[in-house]
Design goal:
The chain has about 600 residues and is an alpha/beta fold. It folds into 2 domains: about 375 residues, Na+/H+ antiporter like fold (Up-down Bundle); about 200 residues, Rossmann fold (3-Layer(aba) Sandwich), CATH 3.40.50. The protein is built from 24 helices and 9 strands. The strands form 2 sheets. A 5-stranded parallel β-sheet has the order 3-2-1-4-5, with helices on both faces. A 4-stranded antiparallel β-sheet has the order 6-9-7-8, with helices on one face. The longest helix has about 35 residues. The chain is elongated and about 85 Å long.
Length: about 600
């Protein structure tokens, strides 16, 4: 069956969406399903033949897509965050990454049989992890907070750093292949770095001075990135990727330049590009693979998993304060992702066009590393975390959406319970600052945003209490976290009474979560009670002081809010789920002032 260009693009979009959806359902990195779909559609069945259908368009399309991906990743690197990420992370993203690069290059040369130039390029591409593969794996593994923070920050920081490594190594190879001198190589690097910095300065000032209207900022940024990439390549061959990487890092660190909307747009665009690009690139793989590549790739993966990563983590984490159990799990989890797959395919295309021997082995070796790390680590990391006793227990903590007076009062009571992790999320800076000053972990922003998916640490969190004053946002956040926590773990405090929320002002039933503290309890009523002198009391029940004794002391009007079982499970009172506290429970209740 002949597939035209329009049909090819449509198929890639459809298959890409399906792969992303399946990855979301099973909580595994989407890159695994995208690569497998491309392999199935390309070398296995022969339905997709990108080179034949796209022809001369293939190389520029891949180049521009990779440029956008690298720019989006480099936007997330903040220099001020490097100071607070801990000794272990600093080691992993600096000398640990260099050590891993060198060891991977040795493995690729002696096991994979590639030249030293390609070996070092392979090492630069595969020494990094990334947030798009780490985040889904952490949700499945659920390690303790220290391990989760190390792995998450390593993925965020090393993603653009690794891209820079790979670009620099490639520039050196390309210069050598074309017989260029060291001075010309340094000139190429300087051209990319300077042009990227100048482009960031100009574009950042246009944004800062509001000379670009908001509705055109995403469009303008995309055009600026692609123009910078093309101009840099025109001035100095192969310098474009370095230029957009530097541009992203510089723009992301400029003061008073608001790029949140641009980052959201780029994240959505990157999802689209990655989904299509990975299918396209995997479909180009030749099957059978070059002689010995399959076994060499599996052997390199085994060495990387069992030797190189542990050595790198051991050296990087010396003096970090991590226990040997924590270091062991960090050493086990290092899935490769977007940078490795996309950049390797682009570099392979360019090197093959120059006739470099062995360039056809680069992509298969990288893809085997990606598939091996994602599949193997997804299957083994959770059992290993349990065996090492560094896995979080069943998620019992609470994410509170809202930093208003009512939400903070409830948060204080929950935060006081030993072993119960509580996080407050809101875009109200005053409320977030109040929570931080009281020692409560916080997230400044919308917990349903892309930024929250990347930065919000949900280790040990298993409940959502939507308690903001924004009814629609409460519903949005509730829907967002149903798949994360389950429908029975997501609750919201009413903003309108049952009498008020009917007819045209009511929300659809599928947008509503169970009502906190009873169907007739609203945010306004709870706030009025607090202003009227009602207080939240926390008491541990026993055989001699049961719930009936509590009511006798504090009054039958006392409203039960939560119950914590002896093993630490949190029970939430709702209109449809009344609680029956038992001896051994810790109860949290709202009691009237007369009995305070």
């Amino acid at each position: 069956m002949r597939i035209e260009l329009g049909m090819l693009l449509t198929l890639m979009l459809g298959i890409g969406f399906l792969c992303q959806w399946v990855a979301w359902r099973v909580r595994l990195p989407a890159i695994l399903f995208l690569l497998l779909a491309g392999i199935l559609a390309g070398p296995v069945t022969g339905l997709l033949r990108p080179d034949k259908v796209m022809g001369d368009l293939l190389f520029p399309v891949v180049s521009l897509a990779v440029a956008v991906i690298l720019f989006e990743g480099s936007l997330t690197l903040r220099f001020h965050e490097l100071k607070g990420i801990g000794h272990a992370v600093r080691g992993l993203v600096t000398y640990g990454a260099v050590l891993a690069l060198g060891l991977l290059a040795v493995a690729a040369h002696y096991i994979g049989g590639v030249s030293w130039e390609l070996a070092f390029l392979f090492g630069a591409l595969t020494c990094v992890t990334g947030p798009t593969v780490i985040a889904p794996m952490l949700r499945t593994v659920r390690p303790n907070a220290r391990i989760a923070n190390v792995l998450r920050w390593e993925g965020i920081v090393i993603d653009p750093v690794g891209a820079l490594f790979a670009v620099l190594v490639y520039e050196a190879i390309a210069s050598h292949q074309e017989g260029h001198s060291v001075q010309l190589f340094l000139g190429t690097v300087a051209c990319g770095a300077v042009l990227g910095g100048v482009a960031a300065f100009i574009h950042g000032n246009l944004l800062r001075r509001h000379w670009i209207p908001e509705y055109l900022q995403n469009f303008g940024t995309l055009a600026a990135v692609l123009f910078t990439f093309s101009l840099s390549n025109a001035l100095a061959g192969e310098s474009g990727l370095l230029a957009v990487t530097v541009m992203g890092i510089a723009l992301g660190n400029m003061r008073d330049v608001h790029i949140d909307d641009i980052m959201d747009f780029k994240e959505h665009l990157t999802t689209l590009l990655v989904s299509s690009l990975f299918i396209l690139l995997a479909a180009r793989l030749n099957w059978p693979l070059p002689d010995g590549t399959l076994f060499a790739g599996l052997a390199i993966f085994a060495v990387a998993q069992l030797v190189i990563r542990p050595v790198s983590v051991f050296v990087s984490s010396l003096g970090s304060g991590l226990t040997w159990r924590e270091r062991a799990l960090v050493a086990w989890v290092a899935p490769r992702g977007i940078v490795a797959a996309s950049v390797s395919a682009l570099f392979a295309l360019r090197l093959e066009s120059t006739g470099m021997t062995g360039a056809d082995k680069l992509v298969p070796l990288v893809f085997l590393m990606i598939i091996g790390t994602v599949v193997f680590q997804s299957a083994t990391a959770r059992p290993l975390a349990r065996w090492l006793r560094v896995a979080e227990p069943e998620p019992r903590g609470v994410l509170v959406y809202g930093a208003n007076a009512v939400a903070l009062e409830v948060t204080r009571a929950l935060h006081a319970i030993d072993g119960l992790r509580v996080i407050v999320a809101d875009d109200d800076w005053h409320g977030i600052r109040t929570a931080r000053m009281e020692g409560v972990p916080t997230f400044f922003g919308n917990p349903a945003s892309q930024a929250a998916d990347r930065h919000l640490d949900l280790a040990g969190i298993g409940h959502l209490l939507a308690m903001s004053t924004h009814r629609e946002l409460n519903s949005l956040v509730s829907v967002h976290y149903r798949e994360e926590f389950g429908r029975d773990k997501v609750f919201r405090l009413r903003n309108l009474s049952p009498e008020e929320s009917h007819g045209r002002v009511s929300l659809a039933g599928n947008l509503l979560a169970p009502a906190l503290f009873g169907e007739d309890m609203t945010h306004a009523r709870f706030d009025d009670l607090l202003h009227g002198g009602w207080r939240i009391k926390t008491t541990r029940l026993s055989d001699t002081f049961a719930w009936t004794n509590f009511l006798a002391q504090y009054g039958t009007d006392a409203l039960l809010l939560f119950g914590v079982e002896p093993r630490g499970d949190l029970r939430v009172a709702t209109g449809k789920q009344p609680l029956e506290p038992r001896p051994g429970w810790t109860v949290i209740a709202l009691v009237p002032p007369a009995n305070d």
